[in-house]
Write a structure and sequence with these properties.
single chain; 230 residues; alpha/beta; Rossmann fold; 9-stranded mixed beta sheet; two-stranded antiparallel ribbon; 11 strands; 25% strand; hydrolase; ATP binding
């Protein structure tokens, strides 16, 4: 499996994702610059976290028009795998590859802390091996992470089993009290209808090494790879 990590001006989580995929998961990884028009034969494209183009206008609004995104959109439309983490999730919604939008956090503050998320389905690659009864501790670091969409789209996402994760308590309770940013229905991650494009606000790459004191994020990468390589 060959992974391509897209690097935009302002990306700052790209090396974290590269290290997890190449060193921890032993996968082939290449860097893709935002001005490129060549995905270099990559099977799976990852859009990392950060502050692409300084988050001017809206997070992801400018990055969505980077030259490489033309190729990423075509790749996704052909059924190729794409995943965005944090700023990458924002870019995917701006590009129309995922429904909804990521708005300013409810309390208008930048969040940087560990939270708990609960898998909502086993029918998506990043959650295929996860325990849907287990809360996973994963860090967040964002100012615009509040997932929002209209009522019809929300119903469609739920009916199609596209919700990957919801924010929850340490013991798995999904209530507004544990919704760290005010996201609609506690949603922390979703897929597209085709189940080949994924986005999540928490950072699993920051919780995938024993030296960091937390490997809950590694389970998400293991799940993703198991589904792709099956």
């Amino acid at each position: 499996m060959k992974f391509g990590i897209v690097i935009f001006p302002g990306s700052n989580c790209d090396q974290d994702v590269i290290d997890v995929l190449s060193q921890t998961m032993n996968q082939q990884v290449v860097k893709l610059w935002h001005k490129d028009h060549d995905l270099q034969g990559c099977d799976f494209i990852m859009l990392p976290g950060g502050f692409s183009y300084g988050d001017y206008l809206r997070s992801g609004a400018i990055a969505r028009f980077s030259p490489i995104m033309q190729e990423v959109i075509q790749h996704a439309n052909r059924g190729g795998y794409v995943m965005g983490i944090c700023n990458g999730f924002q870019i995917l919604t701006e590009a129309g590859l995922l429904p909804g939008a990521l708005l300013r956090n409810q309390e208008q503050k930048f969040l940087c802390k560990n939270v708990y998320i609960k898998p909502e389905t086993k029918n998506l690659l990043p959650t295929s091996l996860l325990d849907t009864n287990k809360p996973y501790k994963i860090p967040v670091a964002h100012g615009e992470g509040r997932f929002y969409t209209d009522a019809d789209t929300l119903k469609r996402i739920q009916d199609n089993d596209q919700v990957m994760f919801r924010y929850c308590s340490h013991d798995g309770l999904v209530t507004p009290e544990f919704d760290c940013n005010g996201s609609l229905d506690n949603i922390a991650g979703i897929s597209n209808e085709g189940r080949n494009v994924f986005g999540m606000m928490p950072h699993p790459e920051r919780a995938a090494d024993p030296d960091l004191g937390n490997t809950d994020g590694k389970a998400i990468f293991e799940s993703l790879l198991a589904g792709v390589l099956a």
